[in-house]
Amino acid sequence: MLKNFRVLVASVTVLLLPATALTGEDQTLKGIMQVMRQNFLDVSDGFLLDDFDKVANGALAIAEHPRIPEEEAQRVADELGPEMPVFKNFDVEVHELSLELYKAAQERDRVAALAAYQGMFAACIDCHAAFRERVAGVLGGDGCESPEETGCN
Question: Is 98 exposed, middle or buried (0-12, 13-18, 19+ CB in 10 A)?
């Protein structure tokens, strides 16, 4: 009985820990975007290596990315105002396309996988062009990971 109780307590404790305590990942929007960048690189690498499992895994990781923390989401919504639905739509579009990419990669359908990847990539670029600077500004960043990598100042 005591052993079962300890297992129950340990299980509840794990469930109550914040995701960052379990993953060690930065659960800010910037941290989420940095992980998604790596997921995109994994997908690209998968295409180059003809590794559909790597493509599928990267696509699924993009689809299942964590939600923006509520406090940050509110700050972004306050900044974007009536443009917030457009911002949110980019997230929905990337999510849907990443699921299409995942399915196509599982089916080893290169044409469909590349089409989904190109659409997903375009949606990310369009979102960054429209919102990156403003969102980074309201969240306390400059929108650049590294000026050397992105050409930002």
Answer: buried
